[in-house]
Amino acid sequence: MEYVTLGRTGLRASVLGLGGGGHSRLGQKTGASADDSSAIVRRALELGVNFIDTAEAYGTEALIGAALQGVNRQDVILSTKKSPVADGQPISAQTLVAALDASLARLGTDYVDIYHLHGVRAEHYARAAEELVPALERLRDAGKIRFLGITEVFGSDTGHAMLARAVHDPCWDVMMVGFNMLNQSARERVLAETQRRGIGTLCMFAVRDALSRPAKLREVVAGLVAQGALDPAKIDLDNALGFLLEAADSLPEAAYRFCRAEPGLDVILSGTGNPQHLEENVAAIVRPPLPEPLRQRVIDLFGAIDSVSGQ
Ligand SMILES: NC(=O)c1ccc[n+]([C@@H]2O[C@H](COP(=O)([O-])OP(=O)(O)OC[C@H]3O[C@@H](n4cnc5c(N)ncnc54)[C@H](OP(=O)(O)O)[C@@H]3O)[C@@H](O)[C@H]2O)c1
């Protein structure tokens, strides 16, 4: 494993972080037992992964807590989250404080390294920043949170409207941003500024469905061609990224390597419930960047696209 400094937090994080959400939720969404999912967490630690992301909403905090029993707390960076909205209504600071306590209990710890406002929509940002950031700062002063984070809803906010605004506020130490080969718009809209400000970044959606399921990639590419965002003459509609297989064993491998090589992305999150995928993804992240002509071809094809997430 290789390690990176997570912006101004100074935390030394593994370049691959284990994601406890997404379509796998450590296998909880695909039929795994709690023991199977805990085994994924423990295997990740053995492979040198020290960054684990979860959220109240994922239902994986307790099994991560179980997997971390007996592990030295200082050896793991724990990231969890709480949505600023419940049933369409903004939550109160009091609700946030109670939610953190519940997360800490499930995780079996008395602090989290990063506590994020989860999936903040642009229209909710101003109120969340005004009402909830002071509460987060008090929790940090009380030692329950080390750093403040915020994550976007990349599935719908594919152009980063929320983070492009949040990045100018001084309170955020860490941001979780959607970025992958099919939508690189964070490069200009978010990562240019996070690098200037020393905000640590976590990459989500590196693979998701479109880069792990060929049928989904065909669907996304067909949609982009229909919108006029891709020139069909320049692309193999059945296998749009097949050219990467001359340098990578699989598209997920190419996808993680592409993100790892992106300046300004610190930790690349990988969500999996499959032990074999975990091994492959850890191996992928420490492979060299894709050869520059291939990386450039991905940028030439998809670099101007901001309308898809790969969801
Ligand atoms: N708004 C937010 O705050 C937000 C939103 C989304 C995600 N996140 C965080 O970001 C993390 C990463 O997102 P993600 O889980 O969508 O991650 P991802 O790593 O981009 O994609 C994971 C998907 O790819 C599959 N996969 C992984 N490795 C594979 C491989 N080697 N070969 C084939 N398929 C593979 C997984 O299925 P298998 O289980 O079969 O491997 C899963 O369906 C989440 O877990 C969560 O912690 C946060």
Topology (SSEs and partners):
Blueprint: E1 3-5, E2 12-14, E3 16-19, H1 34-46, E4 51-53, H2 61-67, E5 77-82, E6 85-86, E7 89-90, H3 93-107, E8 112-120, H4 122-141, E9 145-152, H5 161-166, E10 174-178, H6 186-197, E11 200-204, H7 214-227, H8 251-260, E12 267-271, H9 275-285, H10 292-302
Parallel strand pairs: 3-4, 3-12, 4-5, 5-8, 8-9, 9-10, 10-11, 11-12
Antiparallel strand pairs: 1-2, 6-7
Helix pairs in contact: 1-2, 1-9, 2-3, 3-4, 8-9
The structure holds NADP nicotinamide-adenine-dinucleotide phosphate (NAP).
NADP nicotinamide-adenine-dinucleotide phosphate is lined by residues 19-24, 53, 81, 118-119, 151, 153, 176, 204-208, 212, 252, 269-274, 277, 280-281.
How would you describe what is shown here?
The chain is an alpha/beta fold and 311 residues long. The chain has one domain: NADP-dependent oxidoreductase domain (TIM Barrel), CATH 3.20.20. The protein has 10 helices and 12 strands. Strands 3-4-5-8-9-10-11-12 form an 8-stranded parallel β-barrel, surrounded by 5 helices. A two-stranded antiparallel ribbon has the order 1-2. Helix 1 packs across helix 2 and helix 8 packs across helix 9. It is globular, with a radius of gyration of 19 Å. The model has no long low-confidence stretch (mean pLDDT 97). The structure holds NADP nicotinamide-adenine-dinucleotide phosphate. The site of NADP nicotinamide-adenine-dinucleotide phosphate has 29 residues, from strand 8, strand 12 and helix 9.
